[in-house]
Amino acid sequence: MKRVVVGLSGGVDSSVTALLLKEQGYEVIGMFMRNWHDETVTISDDCPWIDDSNDALLIAQQLDIPFQVIDLSSEYKERIVDYMFDEYKNGRTPNPDVLCNREIKFDVFLKAALELGADYVATGHYCRKIKHPDGSFGLLSGKDPEKDQSYFLCQLSQDQLAKALFPIGELLKSEVREIAEQGGLHTADKKDSQGLCFVGKISLPTFLQQKLEPIKGEVIEIPENNQEFIKYESISPTIENVQLLAEPFSYTKDMGTVVASHQGAHYYTIGQRRGLHIGGRPKPSFVIGTDVNSNIVYSGQTDEHPGLNKYALKIENKDFHFVSNMFDINNLDNCTYSIRIRYRQALQQGSIHVKNDGIYILFKEKQRGITPGQFAAIYDGEELIASGVIAH
């Protein structure tokens, strides 16, 4: 009998994952990851970890499977939290959920599971795994288009995929809840959690202030007719110009008008609307750029502002990763694929172009809020084949 350790989070998805695997004849062990100890930055009434841990224990008892809690807070701090602080400090916006899957769930957690004699680890992700004719593995999007979580697994390796199971990937969310209800699982009606994986919903400003001191600065609004945007619009969106189109806009203080103050440019991210506290403007304001060295936040009105919409992005060579063994850089060069630059974004058409200084993606249509530090995931049909950290 194959042994599988399920990452029981206390939610309905992982609960049904454990139920299905037991019904399929696996020897199932439930394990809850405790990744966080600081309650001061969590929003305590939104899925606090102790309630989730208790729910996970109750599910294990209902299913009559062994259960344990594993404390990975040290590894989580080192690999995820410290990384987040460094990225925000440098004016980039990290994606901790992608990193949590690569570094914690399918690395530290996986190793702990293997030490228990497990053949696999399983999670409640809405995605699917396939085996290619050459024996390698592929990662497919989940059957439920509203819940597909393949994006969060865009940094997994072949070794990690080989040991992973995703039992609910073929199901719709409604079907998962129906199975939970039919199985009498007490998490059947539990609402979905939000926030950092296995941590819960956090107050990001409070979280960041643990290491990043507030520094008062100015929010400067850049008008739509700025020369940077006029110059950009004069560049034809062609392959020959992809490097120019991916260049970040360059703002200076004298280009616009001071419209507000802020408590630190490192707290903000491109495309952000909430938390700007800009009043008296005709239309909603968005962050279109940050300068952490000068501690300036640049804003523009509406999400159609030209500073927020670009045709291309760049990924450094060192930050590009293949999930699939069926593709290499030569397969991608000058070819068109489906791409998303954030979770839940509809797939966008774009062509990949390999240059000496990095990999570029030229989109068919302008993309809003291309954000350094986030991940661009590349799909061939339903299969997620590669990904990379957005440089600019």
Task: Tally the helices.
Answer: 10
**Overall geometry:** globular
- How many structurally independent domains? 3
Biggest sheet: strand arrangement: 12-15-14-13-16-17
3D architecture notes:
The longest helix has 20 residues, at 96-115. The chain has 392 residues and is α/β, with parallel strands linked by helices. The termini are far apart. Helices cover 26% and strands 28% of the residues. It folds into 3 domains: 3-124 and 167-206, 3-Layer(aba) Sandwich (Rossmann fold), CATH 3.40.50; 217-307, SH3 type barrels, CATH 2.30.30; 310-390, Elongation Factor Tu (Ef-tu), domain 3, CATH 2.40.30. The strands form 3 sheets. The chain has a 6-stranded antiparallel β-barrel. A 5-stranded parallel sheet has the order 3-2-1-4-7, with helices on both faces. A 4-stranded mixed sheet has the order 9-8-11-10, with no helix packed on it. Helix 1 (12-23) packs parallel to helix 2 and helix 3 (73-89) packs antiparallel against helix 4. A hairpin with a 2-residue loop joins strand 16 (375-380) and strand 17.
Write the layout of secondary structure elements.
Blueprint lengths: L2 E5 L4 H12 L3 E8 L14 H15 L3 E5 L1 H17 L6 H20 L4 E3 L4 E5 L5 E5 L16 H5 L1 E2 L7 H10 L21 H5 L8 E5 L5 H7 L8 H5 L10 E6 L22 E7 L4 E6 L7 E14 L6 H4 L2 E6 L7 E8 L2 E11 L6 E6 L2 E8 L2
Parallel strand pairs: 1-2, 1-4, 2-3, 4-7, 8-11
Antiparallel strand pairs: 5-6, 6-17, 8-9, 10-11, 12-15, 12-17, 13-14, 13-16, 14-15, 16-17
Compact summary:
By secondary structure, this protein is α/β, with parallel strands linked by helices.
